[in-house]
Specification:
The chain has 689 residues and is mainly β. It has 4 helices and 59 strands. The longest helix is centred in the N-terminal third of the chain and has 13 residues.
């Protein structure tokens, strides 16, 4: 990259300077203002701002608005100076530490910060003080939990305490402020309702407990732990070393926002255009607290919130913008999110790591006719160790957003699902159900003036914007490290023509894993093609609708058993729990088991009827069990009696080396007889330039 720029920013600069290389600005805000003046003077070309290495402390969100738009054919580029790494941090140094006793130190919160939900040192995020894990007793509600004896301090500091819990359904996690504790009844009332009843998870294995108390001095015990007292404005810390050093408290959740003219009620927005950010680091953002009125505004099962400032970087009304080669790290919330009107933007070649929430989020408008979160590219990113505070956060989450390319990403070490495309919404007008407040009822009613109580998927599909997405050439491993009922790739309740193609999903060793690829409730018209699933726990694929599953490898799906605990997610390589799979295409797939007695398929009827392989066009598949030669033949005999799998075969597929995951086919491989097309694993994951 050339060092000849329009403006320069450096840590030793001054905002009163002219912004030259010799006399640079000191802040990103001052550089933004200088570019505005250049644009007002008529500059229509590319404008380049080079930012020298070092740390830039942000105490206010830097906002790029309509006045920052670059004209067509030009762009404003904020880039790292060659071979240097500028870091934009919301972390404020904590000074004046005093010994308190028992290895605990205390300090005043910095001026202007009333409370924090995350804290950092030179190694990254510090764990907040937490009590011993426990499993709630009896039947809870969304507002009340019953806890076992000794699980909660009797004199609990309810002003500061929060309850972290995996609730009734273990595909969610909540961190909730506590309103009241009754030590005699052993109950806790929360100030913000949980996603589901606050009681024992219905399934899953949580060896350290599914709930615990956080952020009170009474449970601060381990090195690195901390808590905050909002009433007196103090931090308490048990440092990792002999004394505190380099401790940072976040002043912001949102460091940078690109925001256009948003008309939520109307049909037209005015986006900011052509802002490019390259080679920058964003760090030390806080976790956005859950809100009392969040019910109905959560994105599927409250995995995120609709139109909220939960990320370090947020695009809200943007077109033609890009973040390239940036790093998003050590934050309590989401890395980057593209909200509402976001079209033709590019998130490319970034590193998103060690964040408390989602890695990358695309979230459009709710169901209706306003469809303007589209045609974005999420490519060549490396996303790992996400969901560190809010476990139910996906690695990459596409909600009500369509026509996007999510390709060549590497996603691993996620607490929950790696890749999600969703439009799951409970269509209730009272707004109290999941996502219900996001529905644009006036637009729906104009299409259906009779206001039917229930629309079919084909009627609702025109309002579901999450269609035509390409999820391709991604690599996923070590997903689902904590929560239950999740997957490597999850598509649910959204529009049609989504394609999951050429992904390598491997080495997911979680007992709580569901399926590697899942088309969940009311999901149709999805293509699952040319994917390799290898050495994963759980199930191969789940389909609850009319979908196409063609030319995939499902090999060495593993049963992870724990003593005395039933694994509810080992129902087979092929799972049709319920739904309408009629005319689904299940062809040219390879299913290889390495465990005797493994189940191949689970049919419905389930709670909604249907769900049978013989309702599909199932044929020309290959089945093989290295430990049980009768496994495949018995299955195929049963299926042929039902009129399917006529040309399918039971045979060793002929891989070059299954043990090492070399899925190239030998010259005379049996897989060639079913028309299987080889899958090139070298093309999966980020491309190295």
């Amino acid at each position: 990259m050339p060092t000849d720029a329009d403006f320069y920013v450096a840590t030793d600069g001054e905002d009163g300077n002219p912004g030259t290389e010799e006399k640079p600005f000191a802040t990103l805000t001052r550089a933004r203002n200088a570019v505005r003046q250049l644009r007002k003077a008529g500059a229509k070309r590319d404008v380049l701002v080079l930012i020298r290495g070092g740390s830039y402390q942000l105490c206010e969100t830097v906002v790029f608005g309509l006045e920052d738009s670059a004209p067509e054919g030009g762009a404003t580029i904020y880039a790292a100076f060659p071979e240097e790494r500028p870091v934009f941090s919301a972390g404020i140094p904590i000074e004046g530490w005093k010994r308190r006793g028992n290895g605990i130190w205390e300090a005043e919160l910095p001026t202007g910060i009333e409370s924090v939900n995350s804290l950092y040192d030179g190694e990254g995020m510090l764990p907040r003080a937490r009590g011993k894990g426990f499993v709630p007793e009896e039947e809870g509600t969304r507002w009340t939990m019953h806890y076992p004896k000794g699980a909660v301090p009797e004199d609990l500091d309810v002003v500061n305490a929060e309850l972290a819990i995996v609730p009734h359904y273990p595909w969610a996690m909540n961190v909730l402020p506590i309103a009241k504790a009754d030590p005699e009844a052993r109950t806790i009332e929360v100030a913000v309702p949980g996603t589901y009843p606050l009681d024992r998870p219905t399934f899953g294995h949580f060896p350290e407990g599914s709930a615990w108390i956080e952020n009170v001095l009474a449970v601060l015990s381990e090195p690195g732990e901390w808590c905050v007292d909002k009433q007196v404005g103090k931090l308490y810390l048990k440092p990792r070393g002999e004394e505190p050093g380099g401790i940072l408290a976040p002043a912001l959740t949102e460091l940078v926002r690109i925001e256009g003219g948003i008309d939520c009620a109307g049909q037209e927005d005015e986006p900011v255009r052509n802002q490019i950010f390259r080679g920058l680091t964003f760090a030390h953002g806080d976790r956005w607290p859950w809100e009392r009125e969040k019910t109905g505004w959560g994105l599927q099962h409250d995995w995120e919130m609709f139109d909220r400032p939960t990320a370090m970087v947020r695009l809200r009304g943007a077109e033609g913008c890009a973040f390239e080669g940036c790093r998003f790290a050590h934050a309590g919330g989401t890395g980057i999110r593209l909200d509402l009107h976001c079209r033709g933007n590019r998130i490319e070649g970034n590193l998103i790591e060690h964040v408390g929430g989602v890695g990358i989020l695309l979230a459009g408008y709710g169901p209706g006719t306003k469809d303007v979160n589209r045609e974005n590219e999420v490519v060549d990113n490396h996303v790992h160790h996400v969901g560190r505070l809010l476990w139910s956060s996906p690695g990459i989450f596409v909600w009500q957003s369509g026509g996007n390319r999510v390709e060549h990403n590497l996603v691993h070490h996620t607490a929950y699902t790696a890749l999600v495309v969703s439009g799951r919404i409970v269509w209730k007008r009272d707004g109290e159900a999941e996502c219900a407040r996001t529905i644009r009822w006036e637009e729906v009613d104009r299409r259906f003036p009779e206001k039917p109580e229930r629309l079919s998927w084909h009627q609702r599909e025109q309002f579901l914007h999450g269609r035509d997405n390409l999820i391709g050439f991604n690599e996923v491993h070590h997903a689902m490290q904590i929560l239950g009922d999740g997957n490597c790739v999850y598509i649910s309740g959204t529009g049609g023509r989504n394609v999951v193609r050429n992904n390598f999903l491997h080495d997911v060793d979680s007992y709580n894993m569901n399926a590697s690829i899942r088309c969940d409730d009311d999901q149709h018209d999805t293509v699952i093609e040319n994917n390799v699933v290898f050495r994963n726990c759980g199930e191969g694929f789940i389909s609850k609708g009319n979908n196409r599953v063609v030319n995939n490898i499902f090999a060495d799906i593993r049963s992870r058993t724990l003593e005395g605990i039933e694994n509810k997610h080992q129902r087979g390589y092929i799972v049709f729990p319920y739904g309408e799979p009629h005319n689904s295409l299940i062809q040219r797939n390879i299913f290889v088991s390495r465990e005797a007695g493994q189940q191949i398929i689970t049919h419905g009827p389930g709670r909604q009827g249907g769900g049978y392989l013989w309702d599909c066009e199932a044929d020309a598949n290959l089945y093989w069990n290295t430990e049980d030669p009768e496994w495949a033949e018995e299955f195929l005999e049963e299926m042929r009696e039902k009129g399917v799998e006529i040309r399918s075969i039971a045979a060793d597929p002929g891989f070059a080396d299954l043990d090492s995951g070399d899925f190239r086919l030998r010259e005379n491989a049996a897989a060639r007889a079913i028309g299987f097309v080889e899958i090139d694993l070298s093309r999966m994951g980020p491309r190295v330039v």
